[in-house]
Amino acid sequence: MTIGIVGLGLIGGSFAKAYSDNDEHKVLAYNRSKEVIQAAYNDKAIDGELNEGNIKDCDLILLCLYPQLCIDYLTKMAPYICKDAMVIDCCGTKELICQSCYPIAKQYGFTFIGGHPMAGRHFSGYAYSTKTMYNGASMVLVPEDLNDTKSIERAKKLLSPIHFGKFTICDYDRHDAMIAFTSQMAHVVSNAYVKSPTAKNHDGFSAGSYKDLTRVAWLNETMWTELFLENKKHLIKELDYFITALQEYKTAMENDDAETLKKLLADGKHCKEEIDGITGE
């Protein structure tokens, strides 16, 4: 199988290393930085550079750039892609890219499916990519037609060398609504939390809960700005829920209302138990 990978950051680099671990696969890659391309050559993660001349040989093309850059790349390269190929993007939001790329694929006769590998690391960039990053992780697939089982099964087969643990199939609106809660909210809250002046003096007073809540405050502000704004419809809705809940805790404490505060805390604990399937006493 020949795989084309567009973008050799953490996501694309990890795909390249995983596929190249099997000699049966040929990996071609495009990356703006020639230093990264050379590093991938040195690691034997790629077999060549992806271009207009050889993209037609690819069975699978993975778009691993920021959403708008993925759209721009596919718009430019679509005329050279084989009609038997499948293109899957790996962006963090789906509405914009799916609405843009479904028509491009239809025009040129190849298959496009939205994708989102649910895996990552604290640091970004090719240097931090690993061949095992996706082992056991979930891969979200967003086909244009949820009943297109042929394309869905083909995507799963093309991705099988990556060893995902689970595939989740949904439309782009459901994907973006869920990601607003499970990923984007966590980044917003963490990033805002560390802005407290008290954070500068945390050393000696912090343990696991502080580390858990602040882990994703360190982020790529360029990428997350694009993702937040693309998904603001769903993210603002989640922020409204959160701000309302915080105000309830604040009001209870301002009023020394122990009964209400205890109920709010119990409600949150019960929500966590229900989510995780924990049976309380």
Question: How would the global form be characterised?
Answer: elongated
> What is the correct CATH architecture of the largest domain?
3-Layer(aba) Sandwich
**CATH topology call of the largest domain:** Rossmann fold
Derived from helix and strand composition plus strand pairing, the structural class reads alpha/beta
Unreliable parts: none
Report mean pLDDT, rounded to a whole number.
Answer: 95
The name of the CATH superfamily of the largest domain reads NAD(P)-binding Rossmann-like Domain
Number of E-type strands: 8
The span between the termini is: 53 Å
What is the count of helical runs?
10
- Taken in chain order, the helices and strands follow as EHEHEEHEHEEHEHHHHH
Oligomeric description of these chains: single chain
CATH class of the largest domain, please?
Alpha Beta
Largest sheet: 8 strands, mixed
- How many structural domains are formed by the residues? 2
Strand coverage percent:
5-15%
Helix content: 40-55%
Domain Prephenate/arogenate dehydrogenase: 1-281
Family: Belongs to the prephenate/arogenate dehydrogenase family.
GO molecular function: NAD+ binding; prephenate dehydrogenase (NAD+) activity; prephenate dehydrogenase (NADP+) activity
Keywords: Oxidoreductase
Task: Describe, in plain words, how this protein is organized in 3D.
The chain is an alpha/beta fold. It has two domains: 2-170, Rossmann fold (3-Layer(aba) Sandwich), CATH 3.40.50.720; 175-276, 6-phosphogluconate dehydrogenase C-terminal fold (Orthogonal Bundle), CATH 1.10.3660.10. It has ten helices and eight strands. Strands 3-2-1-4-5-6-7-8 form an eight-stranded mixed beta sheet, with helices on both faces. It is elongated, with a radius of gyration of 22 Å. It starts with a strand and ends in a 5-residue tail after the last helix.
